[in-house]
Amino acid sequence: MVAFWRTFARNRLAVIGGVVVAILVVFAVAAPALAPWDPNKHDTRRILAPPSAQHWMGTDQLGRDVFSRVLYGARVSLAVGFVSVGIATLIGVLLGAAAGYHGAVVDGVIMRLVDLMLVFPRFFLLLAVLAFLKPSIWTIMVVIGLTGWMSVARLVRAEFLTLREREFVIWSESVGASAARIVFRHILPNALAPVLVAMTLGIPAAILMESGLSFLGLGVQPPHATWGNILTDGKDSLEIAWWMTVYPGLAILITVLSYNLLGEGIRDALDPRLRQSRVGRVIRLGG
Amino acid sequence: MRRPGGRVLVLWVAGLLVAGCGTRAESPAESTGSDARAYGDTFVEASIGDIGALIPNLASDGASHDIGALIYDGLLRVDKNINWLPAMAESWTFAPDCLSLDFTLRRDVKWHDGHPFTAADVVFTWQTLIHPKTPAPFKEKFLQIKAVEALDPYTVRVTYPQPYGRALETWNEYILPKHLLEPYVADGKLRESPQNRHPVGTGAYRFKEWRSGEKVVVVANPDYYLGRPYISRIVYRVIPSQATIFLELKARGVDYSSLTAVQYKRQTEYPAFRKVYDKYRYPGTGYTFLAFNLKDPRFADRRVRQALAHAIDKRELMDGVAMGLAREVWGPIRPGNWAFTDKVKRYEFDATRAKEMLEEAGWKDRDGDGVVEDGGGRPFAFTIRTNQGNDERKRIAEILQQRFKDVGVKVEIQTIDWASFIKEFVKPRKFEAIVLGLGFGADPDQYVLWHSSQTDPDQMNRTGYANPEVDALLEKGRASCRQEERVKYYHRIQEILAEDIPMIFLYVRDALPVIASRVRGPDPGPAGMLWNLPEWYVPKHLQVYTAG
Amino acid sequence: MAFFIVRRLLLVIPLLVGITFVSFIVISLAPGGPLDFLEAENPDLSPEVKRQLTELYGLDKPLIVQYGNWLMRVARLDFGRSFLPDGRPVLAKIGERMPVTLALNIIELLIIVVVAVPIGVLSATRQYSVFDKITTIFVFVGFATPDFWLALLLMSLFGAQLGWLPISGLRHINWEYLSFWRQQWDLVSHLLLPITVATFGGLAGFSRYMRQSMLEVIRQDYVQTARAKGLSEEVVIGKHALRNALLPVVTILGLSLPGLIGGSVIIESVFAIPGMGQLMVQSIYARDYPVVMGNLVIVAFLTLIANLFADLAYGLVDPRIRFGRRRGR
What we know:
The complex is a heterotrimer of chains A (287), B (548) and C (329).
Chain A lengths: L1 H9 L1 H18 L1 H4 L31 H37 L1 H16 L2 H11 L4 H10 L3 H17 L1 H6 L5 H37 L11 H8 L7 H33 L4 H4 L5
Helix pairs in contact in A: 1-12, 2-4, 2-12, 4-5, 4-7, 4-8, 4-10, 4-12, 6-7, 8-10, 10-11, 10-12, 11-12
Chain B lengths: L3 H17 L21 E6 L14 H10 L4 E3 L5 E3 L2 E6 L5 E6 L13 H12 L9 H4 L3 E6 L2 E5 L7 H4 L7 H8 L19 E7 L3 E6 L12 E6 L3 H9 L5 E3 L2 H7 L3 H6 E3 L2 E11 L4 H4 L1 H9 L3 H9 L3 E3 L22 H10 L20 E7 L3 H16 L3 E7 L1 H9 L6 E7 L7 H4 L17 H12 L3 H18 L2 E9 L1 E4 L32
Parallel strand pairs in B: 1-10, 15-16, 15-17
Antiparallel strand pairs in B: 2-3, 4-5, 5-7, 6-7, 8-9, 9-10, 11-19, 12-19, 13-17, 13-18, 14-18
Chain C lengths: L1 H26 L6 H5 L8 H11 L5 H13 L14 H36 L4 H15 L2 H15 L18 H39 L2 H8 L4 H23 L1 H6 L2 H6 L5 H10 L3 H29 L1 H5 L6
Helix pairs in contact in C: 1-14, 5-6, 5-8, 5-14, 6-8, 7-8, 8-10, 10-14, 13-14
């Protein structure tokens, strides 16, 4: 544990990433308190006003304060990130554990399911589903989650297999102990770290996907403030209202960058441990 | 390099660089010259959606109809003010009882493949469109016809079971070639006919090519019966992003586009743009309204509706929503239409008067809470519903909410996604008030909207309006074929509607098209921008595209 | 080896069925229908007409029957016809878009590999150095930048303001009339921005994976042995380490195939490139169900095939599989 932190702290970029992520979370949670304006309040006298003392990031085409919208957008983006990754992880852990523990047929079926889901391009599948459902924040979170559990499942399963091979003796001895106990006390703690990496790297992917969906009009619907929505609103006024494009774009960039650096840092810090298990081969970047 | 592949690559790149160093695209020389009519040049339009079909009768998207209007002609066409002019029909006459309509067709019209156009094609078009297997979205007006017969190769008689006021509008429809399409109709295989990909029409432009998702190209028809069009080619580019279209406009990659209010006012005022583009502004094709559910006893009282009308400041709405680029409307007929009149009652913005009228109707603030109540102490509160995803309508709802609050009426706003909105609220008329938009039709007949019989869920009289005088006028207007007569009916209808206001007609946004200034001839009006496209031209010295 | 091939081939069949099933689940989520779209405030659309259209498209039959019919038709490679007025076969519509997307993505993939491999290798051999840090930030910024944002910025700068490059589309409207070399240049200039935006985002994945893989390999014993034998560093890295480090890259090539064939939806939409991604988006807007479903199935199917080849290639390349009995996963 201590070794982990020491390695992690050595990686300056990862630490910065972690700090930025923490700040973002604080901003997002405290948005209602921090936002100087109501993010949905129109003000027709101040359409597309450049940044000023009153409106730090200017106003949009309906006179809404961009800074407040960016703050509230952080909530949506982070919520989408956390919840969808949470869902994906939950499904992944359950299925991966089932596959690893039961083996044989169950393992076969679940692994085929993983193969099946991997065959679909994720964004495509997302779009197709959203074509048939009303794009609301919950739909999006669930769908991103439902399409991203595969890597976690593989990780957890790999952990099971590793353990199986190595501690075969203990395994057969603990036939008396309940399966749940084995899972929770032995397997999950070991799998936790790489799963954590997968989660950290899954969040930025989810955020990027949400903003892409918003751009296509299939994301969280207006007038909710999401970074993708602000960008979409601003795309027609690119030259005269650069603030609508630059600020949310930067917000996305910084958030995703930080999460990635953080995730990479965690992964690198886990490196010595990874070398021994086959779990290391399974981690992929992003969702 | 060791491998020959590398060498080829280098040569290719070199060739590219040489080619790339040539002149950039095509830009007009800064020459002077006469403005005389000249043939040539290409006009480039952009469309967000891909063309749906090249048999436009089967399509409902704007792009298909824009192209269709170039390739196909109807028996009639419109002038700037939506008056009917002869096209493939030289002349027409109604029988005195308005039950039949005779067209005399021109004899010099040919299909693009050389085949002569005759009355048989007209009969065929009608038969095709009413055929149950033909998936045409707008066949309604053809279903009203009793029969279409060819009295001789150049005379067509259309008979109606009862007089139909919109008869002439029907024959603006694209006429289809019998000699090419006949085999496909019976089995409903129109969409699979080659015509849908390589259309043959009688219009001003001939089809050249369609690269799916990329562009459609049409070229001038030299045998066009109204005279060869001046602009040689028209290219329709498919660009699925409005932001990209605007950038293309600035980079002069397209010659025509519509602007948003913000773009019109703020982003296109610089000298370089104004030199190359002409901006236009004229009333658009649809209006926005606040409709009441007249089943609700509160709204059944006309005074209440009138009071609420007085509470609205339309100027504020238009400024807030369209940066002022809109016009007020007081009725459902488009300004500029032959049946339009603005000599109707208007409800000026007057909050005091609004409160007075509410009081007359029994609504007073009896307990000093800022909200008016009726005799039984119930506060006047209702919900305005509109569809999600439309910032404009939401904004209107919010402004109305504020204004109604000022006169003591409490309003909640609900935005619902389109499909549910229509299915669960609008159709079963489970609403109190809604903000929506409607298109102005070309013909002033408003039967489906205001007649008391049109109140089924699938019909369009959403407010539940029932006024016997209006009913009678609607029926008469529909049943007459004489414009002088119809005008009177529709004027009266507009007067009554403006008085009764089952819905408060708010405004019509301006259409804000932009056309490359080298093009001479655009003359926008109620018929839109493109009604006289075949007459546009670019003077020789300004022509940009020389190919094709 | 033969056993391995046969086993992989047999797995394709249940996956195929699974693809159609998942696709069908997707479509059965639909509440509205294509007719709701037509209805958009058009007073002329009478109930009679709607009824005719419903019958025509078979929208009134129960869901199970619709799936059964569709499945049987898919088995015959009949994806039906588009709901759009042009009524063209779905397969035709997808077919004409496919070459564009494939070409675009192959070029993109090639560029990414050519750039990412050296970056990954150098980052690994100089772990934690300044180079490593800078390239890390660079590729991550690339990954973090929303592609439509970058696209719009570049289009605005190079297209509208500077006028150096065309803004959208695949080629000039008068491409057919240009000379051969002008045509080539036209294509290149149209593709320059989209590919730049796409590769900028895609570098991260590959280079990081390459780096990771290289790092693992470097620490292996045989690398130490090679060094001990006195071989120069370039040979050690370039020949021995690299070859082994590239193996997992083949895997990741396989994993990135879905993206390859599906096309980049956003880039195609912003740059107006008539590919499969754009087709998907437009069909969704138009509620053109047959095309949406067909697109999904075909893309998944192609990915499946491509994965199969990638796996077979991997099997050929990895000696452990060539000579081993079972391949652990």
